[in-house]
Structures
1.
Amino acid sequence: LELSRMPACNVQVLGAQRKELHGFSTASQLHRGFMAECDLVKNAPLPKQTQLIRMISTKATLAARVDAFKSYPGGHKGQQMREEIIKKFGRIQEPPPPKPKKALERPDEQPRRKRAGKRLTSFRKRVQMTEL
C-alpha cells in the first residue's frame, strides 16, 4: 500500500546507497537502486539503461496501485505491463530511419537587387563610364 502512494521517481532509487565522496565529483554516480538488478536492465545496453529504469519504475508504480485497489486479482495486468515495456523498449533501440535527401530548390531567374552601401557606391564610382 505504501508503494502505491510513492511517486515513480522515488521508486526508481529505492535501495540506492549514498556514497561518501568527501568533496570529490559526483558526476560518475548513477541514480540506481533495486531496479538496476532487473533482468531487462542488465541485458540492455549501458546508454539506454537509465531510460529503461525510468520506464520500469513508472510501470511498477502503476502495478502497485492496481494491486492496492485489487482491481485485477489474477495478476495478468502486470504481465501486460511487462510486455508493453519490452515492446516499447524494442522500438527505442531501433536506429532512427534515415532522413530523405531533398533536392535543392530551383534558383530564381531574376538577378537579385544589389543593396546600395558605402562599399558598392565606391565600387560603382571607380568603374563608371567617363566622358572623353
2.
Amino acid sequence: EAGCFTSPFFDNIEGLASAEGCTGFQSRAQFGLERWQEPDFQFRLALPQQPENIIETGQNAMDPLEHPPLGHESYNAVVTNDGASLKFKWGTEKESLFDANWLVRFAQPDIAQNQVDGRVVPIPIRTTKGKQDIARISWQEIQNDVGTLKWLEIINRDGLCIVTDVPTKPKMVHEVARRIGPVMNTIYGELFDVEAVPDPINIAYSPLPLSLHQDLAYYESPPGMQLLHCLRFDESVRGGESTFADTFHIAQLLRDEDPAAFDALARIPATFQKVHYARARPVHLVYRRPHIVLNNRSEVVAAFWAPPFEGPLQASEADTAAYEAAYRKFARITESEQVRLATRLKPGDTVIFNNRRMLHGRAAFDAGGGVRHLQGCYLGMEDYLLRLQVLRNTAGQDKPESVRPDALWTVPPVRVGNQDWH
C-alpha cells in the first residue's frame, strides 16, 4: 500500500496498524503523535535524541539544562513528509524532525522490547552425544565485507565458528582477528602459544585436561572473542579435543531444574582470581561477582564460570551452603552431554568463539611423540559488536538508505554475555 513501511522489526505489533490495516509510516506517525501528548514520552524522546543536536561525530551536543520542562505549553507536533516523519516545535524558534519508525520504537518501549526479546535470546546449538558439526567458513570467503558479515552473523547466532584453510604460519591468527578489529593485549600478551611446555604459567600449556571455563574471568571486562589457530595436531596425538558449552543454555537448564539454585548463583558473588608471582611478569588480580547476571526483567545477560581461576568464597554460613549446592548443580550441567560440543581441530583451522557466552576446555592428551600446537589471541567485545553492526548497515542485504542515528533500526545482536540489559 502507498505510504506503508514493511520493516520486519515492527511487523505484527498490535495497535500500530491503521483501520485499513496499513502498518506503514502514516499510521506510525499518527500513533506517535498521540503518544506525544504524554509528558514522560516527551522527556524520553526529546531529551537525548533531537536530531539537530546529533553532530557529525555521532555525539549529542545538547546541554540537558536547556531542555524545556515537561508539559510545557509551547510543545506542538505535526505529521509531515507524507507520514514518514513527525515535526516537533519547541517554543517559538526550535524545530525537530523525527523519523516515524524510530519514534514509534520509543513510543512503545515495552512492546518494542518484546519484539526484540525473541531475537536476542541465544539459541544453543543442538547436540547429539556431545558431537556437533560446528559451522565453518573458509579463510578465502572472509576476505571481503560480505563474507566477513556472514562470518560474524554465524558467531552471533551460534557463539562460535571455525575458519578453515588458514595458512599454517605463525601469527596468522592475528590476520584472522584483524578482519574484525585490533588484537587485545592481556597478561599473556597479544599472542600466546597453547602447547605442552615444562613449568607452564597456565594449565592450558600442559597435556592435562582443561575443564570448561571462560578466560580471564578475573578481569573487570574479560575478552569478548578468543581465537585459536591450529598450527600442528599430529596424528600420533591421542586426545586433545576442544570442548565448548553455552553458558546461556546451562543457566536456563539450571533455572528450569532448580530455581532456588539459580537465584543463589545470581545473588551470591564468587571470587575469580589470578595470583601468580612465579613468572616474568607477576600477576595479582581478584574480582568478585555472581556467576549469573540478570537484567531488570530477570533475564540472563551474562554468566561467569572459571573453576581453575576461583578463589575463596566470601559469604555468610547460610549463603555458603546455598552457594555450594547451586555450584555443584551448575558444574554437573556443564559436564553433561546435553550441552557439550567437542571437535578435533585440524591444521589450518581457526576456531573463534564468544568468550563471554561460550565455555571452552580441552580433553587430556598424550602427544605420542607428536605435537599439538595452537596459537591464540583475544578481541574486545566492543570491536566485535561495532564491526557486526557497521557491516549490517553498510554491507548487509537490508542495509538502510540512511545512516542517520535516528534512522537506524538494526535489531540488536543476540545477547553476547557482556551484561548489556537489552
3.
Amino acid sequence: MSCEERRGFVQFMWGRSRLPSTVVGFGKDVFKISDQVVAGNPLKSEFPDAWLPVAHTCFFSLELPRYSSKEIMRERIVYAIQNCRTIDADQTQRRNEEI
C-alpha cells in the first residue's frame, strides 16, 4: 500500500488520519479483524466478493467477508478507504478547536 492508502486505512479504521502517539491513547482498543457476520443474510456467504469490509471505529475492528482472493480483498479495502468517509474525527476536532 502507498503511504496515502495506509493513511486512508487508518482513517477508515480509526476515524482519524493518525494513530495515537502512545499506548495510553488507544485505551483498551486493540486492532481486530473478524469474519463479517452472515447470519440472516445468505447472500453474504454465497457472494462474499460483492460486499465491502465494515469498520467499527469505536472498537478499532474490521469485519471482512471471506473474499475469494487476496486481490479482491485488496480492491474492496481500497475502495472502502477511498469512498466510505462517514466518520471523520479529525474534522470534528478541527471544528471544536475553532469554537
4.
Amino acid sequence: MISLPNFKLLCSCSLLLKLLICISLKSSDVPDEIFQSMEISHAMTFGFGHFTWEWHHGLRSWLHPSIYSICILFPLKFLRLDNPLLMNVSVRLLHAFFAFISEVFFCKRVGDEFGGDTQRWTMFLFVTNIFYTHCIIRPLVNSLEAMCVVAGMGAYGFGKNCKTFWFLLFAALACMLRPTAAILWVPLCLYHLVFTKSFQFCVFTAMFVLTAVTVLVSLDTFMYDRMVFSHYNFMLFNILSDANSFFGVNSVHWLFSCAISACMGICTPIWWISVFKLHGKFTLIISLVVFNIIILSFSSHKEMRFVLQLVPLMHVVSAYFVVHHLSQKHNQILSLILPAAMIAILPYLEVYHQNGGISTAYYLSSQISNNSRLLLLVPCFSIPLYSHLHIRVPIRMLDCPPPLNNLTFKLSSVSIPFDDPTVRGTPYVNEYSQFQSSPLLWIEENLRGDFSDYSHVILKDTDLFILIDIILQNGFRFKSKFLHSIAPLENFHFVVFVK
C-alpha cells in the first residue's frame, strides 16, 4: 500500500497551503504579475494606474485585468474596503479558489480513468510541486491559463466521457487569455474531432471560436476606443517578428534542458523516464507536452512560466509511473523527499525572495500624501506602483521599453481611457541602462541635477556612494531601507530618502 494520505486529506492540505501562501506572500516573481494585471485592474476600478508600453500599442487584452476588477476590486470599492493589502490578498485568494476547484475536478477524472492511487499521487504532486505552487496563486495570465488547462483536461476526461461544453469553454477561455494557448488546444480539438467524427462537436467548436473572437475583439475595441485585435498585435511582436528578443535570448533547447527541470523539480527524472516508458499508454498527453515545448522553443525569448500550463499534464504521467513502475520503498522515499524539499524552499520563495519592491511600496503607501511626488531610480518595474500605493501621485520612474522605432513593422498607438500619473521619459529609450552607465550624467541631463520637485527618492544602496552627495545637497534625509533578495545578483537594498 502506498504511504500517502487519503484523497480528501490531500485536498485539504492543498487548500490550506494555498490559503497560507495567499496571506503570507511578500515576494514577487516577475513584473507581469503586477504591471500587466493588478496595475491595470486598479486603473479600471479607480480611474488611475500605470500602463506599460504594451497597452499603448494594443498588445494586451483587457480580459485578464477585467476579471480581477469585476470580481474583487469593484466589490471592495463598493464596500469601502479598498485597502492595498486587502485588494492584493483578495486577488490571490480568488486564484487559490479557482486553482483548488480545478485541481480537485481534474484529479477526480484522473481517478476515474487511472485509479485511486494515481489520483492521490497526482494531487500529491500538485501540493508538493514548488514551482507550480509558487506561480499559481499569483495574478499572472499564465496562472489563469494553467487553471483552464487543468479544468479543461478534467472536462475532456482523457478522451472518455468528454463533457463537451465545459471542455470547449475552458479551451476558449485559455485562448482568449493567451494566444499561445492555441498550441495546446487546437491539436487536441482536432484529435478529438478525428477520433469521434462528431458533427455536433465540430459545430460546437465553431460556435465557441466565433464567440471567443467576437467577445475578445469587442471588449478590446470598446476599451481602446478603436478596432483592435490584441492577439494579432501580440503575435506580430512576439512571434512573427521575434522582437521579444529584446527581453532576453535563450538557446533553442532551453525549455527542454532548463525550464522542465525547474517546473518539475525532483520529479524531473521521473517525467523523462515516463516519456519513454509510458509513451504507448499516454501517447496523447506526452505528444501534447512535447509538441508545445518544441513550438515554444522557436521563440528567442523564453521563460519558465511559459510552460506552467503543461505541468498538470506531466503530473498525471509521472503519478502513473510512480504507482505502477516504482517499488513501495521508492514510493515511500519520494513521499518524504517531496514535502521536505517544499518545506525547505517554498517559505523562502514566498516571503524573502525579491520582496524588497513590495515592502517598499507598502511602506510608501503609509507615508505619502496627495502632495507627494516620487522619484524611483531603481530597476524598471521592480517596485509596484498604484496597485500598492493606492493614491494618485506623480511618479518619475526609469522606463525600459523596447526600441519600437527600429521595428520592421509599425505598431499603431491606441488611446487609454484611464489616467496614468507617471511621468514619461524619452520614448523607446532604455533609461535604466543609461542611468546605470552614468548616474550623475543621467540626473544632469534629465533632471538638471535638481530634485526639488520630488518629496521622496528611492534608489539602490549600490548606487548610494555615487549619489549620496547630490541627494543630501537637495535637502533629503535617509528614512528607511528594504532588502530585496539574498540572491547574489539581486542582493541589494531599496533605500528611501524623504525631504
